[in-house]
Structures are given as structure tokens and as C-alpha cells.
Amino acid sequence: MTSLDPKTLDPGLIPDLTDRMTYTGYLQLDRLLSAQNPLSSPQHHDEMLFIIQHQTTELWFKLVLHELRAAIEHIRADRLSPCFKILARVKHIQAQLVSQWAVLATLTPTEYMQFRYVLGPASGFQSPQYRLVEFVLGNKDERMLAVHKHRPEDSAALGAALQSPSIYDEFLRYLARHGHEVPAEVLQRDVAQPYVPNDAIVEVFRRIYSDPDGQWDAYEMAEKLVDVDEQFALWRFRHVKVVQRVIGHKRGTGGTSGVSYLKLAVEHSFFPELWQVRTCLEEKQAGPESMPGCPAR
Known about the structure:
By secondary structure, this protein is an all-alpha fold. Helices cover about 55% and strands about 0% of the residues. Helix 7 (about 130-135) runs parallel beside helix 8 (about 150-165).
């Protein structure tokens, strides 16, 4: 095998990059690749995996937030169509987050115990970006602000997200502007509080799902939100199983109960009526009386 000679490469290749933009420069790889600093002593081989896994997750969270914020702006401007591509991208990012748990699952309990001590009280529970994603999607919890009070910039960002409408709030407001019967108590609710399901919203979505051709934008937007909600649930479930595989039922490093705590979040739904409406859609030969648990009409 011979070394590469620039003369034998593509004639259009630029070999002299002095004082020019480069791949390393554009991506700031010097900064990015110098941010992995294992703390175990002697350094344990698998700590690098643990660090890169979580740093990669944070980069994906940054992109998810970038996309969700753009989607919210489009909804506010009554432009649903651009959201379809944005939320499809978010779904694929989430799929990457789900699949990369498989890499961390190669870390055995024995290996992790060799360097877990260096984390101290550090925990993924403390990720400000993760909490921002939760807030933007609508899972609001003011108590989470206390975890970030030691970093004013994070606390301020989370406080602003807490007080801002979620993507679901904005979608419901869009539906109201476009003639759907969204109750005033839903439109005027305190957006800093957890969302409470409303039977009237189930009925709004039942009508949309019963007429996809006539309500295409709202119908497609609803399905894109379900995609995101489902992928988030899959990510949480995979998280639980990997944690259980690596540490069993030990307490989490941040003081949580570990697996038991994580399991509580698996069943959470950001957009509850979009799941409930599936039970309430009528079959061709059935009426609403055959669908117990659906709001009366």
C-alpha cells in the first residue's frame, strides 16, 4: 500500500489550505475533540465511551431544540407545512438517540464500577438541554428549576421555557384560529403548569381524523407529533433497560432511585388526546356507543 500523493488525486483537489477554511476549522474540531477528559486514575478504558456517548446525546439535543423552536415559529405564523419536514427530522434524530443506547449497552457492570466514582453527584437528570426538550414538548415541572439554580444561564433559559407555550399549546391555538372548537380554558390556561387532558380536544381531533382530506394540514401535523411522542417513549424505555443492565437497581448518581425513577417516565405522553382519539374513531359499521371511554357527543 502506497501513501497518497496529491498529484495522483482528483485534479480539482486543493492541497494547500494555508489561511483557508478547512474541515477542522469549520467544525472547530480542536475544541470538540479536546473535550473528552476522563477523570479515573488510573484511566479506565471505558470511561471514554461513557463521555462520548453523553456528549453526542447533548449535540443531538441541541439540534432537536433548534428544530422544535423553528416549528413553533411556523405554527405561530399559521404555516404548518414546513413543520412536517422539521418534525420528520426530529423523529430521525430521536431514532439515532434510541439506537446509540446499544453502544453504551456494551459497557458491562464490572467495567462501569471501575470509574463510576468520578461522576460524584453528576447525572443525566441534570442535563439542562434534556429539560428544555421536555418543557418545549409540554412536560412542565417548575420543581426542576431548583436543580439548575447553580448555573444562572441555564436557570434563566429553563424559566423562560417554563413560561412559554409548548409546541402542543401552539398547535391547539392554531386549531382555534382555524375554526376548531378549542375550549377557552385550554387556550387561556397557565402554560407553566402541566397540561391536563380535555375531552373537548379529543372531539376536535376526532373530527380532524374523520376528515383527513378536508383537514389535511391539521391531520398531518397531529401524526407528526405522535411520531415525536412515540420516539421519545422508545428512548425512555431503552434508557431504562440499559441502566438496568449496567447498574441493576442501584441508586442513580444524582440521588434518584435509578431504574424505578426512570420507569415512571416511560408511560408519559406529551400529547394525550392524540393517543386517546384513536380509541374514539368510528368504524364503518360501528357508532360511538361501541367505544367506551370516549367523550359523549
